[in-house]
């Protein structure tokens, strides 16, 4: 670890960046129902800002951008869940204090579980975390200069130009869709995304191959095959596909706990109960159980949730953050609202849950999972660059709390300016993920399919099968899986027939550049879009 890392100037830059990125993330998540990964943009911005100030190092840059990016996915957790309250009941009254409790509760829980599980997923399991790898590669190569830097920034420039033409000028379609598959309710096609192709390349052919296998099972098998053979109607097939995918992801979460986390519980969670050891946690965590009890009490009192629902929320975050860490590590995808739905459905199955209460549960979980999934990329980068994880965790705490307050302020401002109708008519803000959560408030679409997926996932995870990506493939739109598969196939070809490409890391550098180019331009367009709306 070279030089100072957690500095006043790094935190000032981090806080300013967190405010800006959180504002744009909330607006874009509601407007476009998407949220570009901020890590590449904030990594480059932090590097430029700190190098301009002079006498910096890669670890100070890493700490600064950890704070900057933390608020983005906090905003996403709220944007992807809370508007569902008004979608189902435009007259619902939610106080600013309740929203602050939800956001800050999710952030604090995310901080606790980040500190506890970081070592297991980043070091012990050594998951790829493609975005984190790409950010580390970008900072290292950019700092060193030379031929590799030229390759990196050339590929970044190509992806950036492509993204501008596609998203800003609209001269290139975002997707190429199959009308035949669409007729069966399948979002079949290809997403023209250098970023997702690069994620597929970095993650590798095995995990991506399993991901695509899940897509074939869900779309070619259940949706198309099931309807073509007269087994299901479109509505039934969609319900089976959705429930099976969620079941596979929940089962993976259970497998992670049973096989990975519980056998190592003393190392991972020992810091919460022993004054003599911090266990695997980043910082001493003896305060964590008391804070969890306090959060449950505040949720019960301020948000008017039942005691049982509040406890289920806390326990659900434990499971869901582990799922988020695994999912992001293997696929680069963080479906935070799905993890919120999973815990919501568990709560509904165990106790009577009111409509607004259900959204609060989903929102706390989504915020925590959004924060954990995002910063695990930062911690992967930090592990590669030898950044002090404690410094990063402090930066995460600063950026996460700032992000929680700012995201609530932006959401409340939008509701006051446009009214709840902004989410119900689909004209101003599509809020697609919140609509999905609203649809799932009624319960699991097909319980037998969910249970089958859950059992299969537990068994497959215990024999080291990458079943999380299988569940993602079943659940996500086919065009995303197909695009990631292209990257995995390119990696397979490179490994088998062009080993020199990987030996000198050329393939990884190009992939990192392509990924970074789209990610950076995506955030820039998001910022411009948000500013134009003011």
Protein described:
The mean pLDDT is 87. The chain has helices spanning 8-32, 39-53, 58-79, 83-88, 96-124, 130-144, 146-168, 179-182, 194-203, 205-228, 234-261, 265-269, 288-302, 307-331, 336-350, 355-385, 389-418, 421-424, 432-440, 447-462, 467-475, 478-497, 499-503, 506-532; strands at residues 175-177, 189-191. The protein has a two-stranded antiparallel sheet with strand order 1-2. The protein starts with 7 loop residues before the first helix and ends with a helix. The longest helix is centred in the C-terminal third of the chain and has 31 residues, at 355-385. It has 24 helices and two strands. Helix 7 (146-168) packs parallel to helix 24 (506-532). It is mainly α and 534 residues long.
Rounded to an integer, what's the Rg over CA atoms?
Answer: 22 Å
Contiguous runs where pLDDT drops below 50 for at least 5 residues: none
Kindly name the structural category. mainly alpha
In percent terms, what proportion of residues is strand?
A: under 5%
Number of helices: 24
């Amino acid at each position: 670890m070279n030089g100072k890392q957690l500095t006043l100037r790094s935190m000032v830059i981090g806080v300013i960046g967190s405010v800006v990125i959180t504002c744009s993330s909330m607006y874009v998540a509601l407007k476009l129902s998407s949220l570009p990964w901020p890590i590449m943009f904030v990594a480059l911005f932090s590097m430029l800002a700190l190098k301009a100030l002079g006498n910096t190092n890669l670890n100070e840059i890493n700490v600064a951008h950890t704070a900057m990016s933390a608020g983005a996915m906090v905003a996403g957790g709220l944007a992807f869940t809370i508007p569902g309250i008004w979608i189902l009941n435009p007259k619902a009254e939610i106080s600013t204090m309740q929203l602050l409790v939800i956001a800050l509760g999710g952030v604090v829980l995310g901080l606790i579980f980040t500190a506890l599980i970081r070592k297991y997923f980043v070091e012990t399991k050594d998951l790829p975390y493609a975005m984190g790898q790409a950010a580390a590669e970008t900072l290292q190569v950019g700092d060193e200069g030379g031929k590799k830097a030229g390759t990196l920034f050339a590929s970044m420039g190509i992806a950036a130009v492509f993204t501008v033409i596609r998203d800003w000028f609209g001269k290139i379609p975002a997707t190429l869709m199959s009308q035949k598959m669409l007729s069966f309710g399948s979002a079949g096609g290809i997403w023209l995304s250098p970023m997702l192709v690069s994620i597929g390349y970095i993650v590798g052919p095995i995990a991506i191959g399993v991901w695509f296998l899940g897509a074939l099972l869900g779309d070619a098998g259940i949706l198309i095959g099931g309807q073509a053979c007269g087994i299901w109607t479109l509505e039934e097939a969609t319900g089976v596909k959705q429930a099976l995918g969620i079941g596979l992801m929940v089962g993976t979460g259970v497998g992670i706990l049973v096989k990975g986390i519980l056998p190592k519980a003393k190392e991972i969670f020992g810091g919460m109960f022993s004054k003599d050891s911090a266990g695997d946690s980043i910082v001493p965590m003896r305060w964590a159980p008391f804070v969890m009890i306090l959060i449950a009490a505040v949720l019960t009192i301020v948000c008017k949730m039942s005691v049982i629902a509040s406890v289920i929320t806390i326990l659900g975050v434990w499971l869901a953050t582990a799922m988020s860490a695994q999912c992001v590590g293997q696929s680069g995808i963080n479906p935070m609202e799905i993890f919120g739905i999973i815990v919501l459905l568990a709560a509904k199955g165990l106790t009577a849950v009111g409509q607004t209460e259900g959204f609060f549960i989903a929102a706390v979980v989504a915020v925590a999972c959004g924060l954990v999934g995002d910063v695990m990329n930062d911690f992967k980068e930090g592990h590669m660059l030898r950044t002090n994880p404690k410094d990063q965790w402090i930066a995460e705490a600063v950026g996460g709390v700032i992000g929680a307050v700012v995201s609530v302020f932006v959401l409340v401002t939008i509701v006051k300016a446009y009214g709840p109708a902004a989410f119900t008519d689909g004209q101003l803000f599509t809020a697609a993920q919140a609509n999905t959560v609203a649809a799932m408030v009624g319960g699991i679409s097909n319980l037998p399919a969910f249970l089958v997926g859950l059992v299969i996932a537990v068994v497959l995870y215990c024999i080291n099968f990458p079943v999380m990506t299988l569940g993602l493939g079943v659940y996500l739109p086919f065009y995303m899986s197909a695009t990631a598969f292209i990257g995995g196939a390119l990696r397979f070809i490179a490994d088998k027939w062009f080993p020199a490409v990987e030996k000198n890391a050329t393939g990884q550098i190009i992939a990192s550049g392509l990924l970074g180019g789209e990610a950076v331009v995506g955030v820039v367009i998001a910022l411009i879009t948000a500013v134009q709306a003011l």
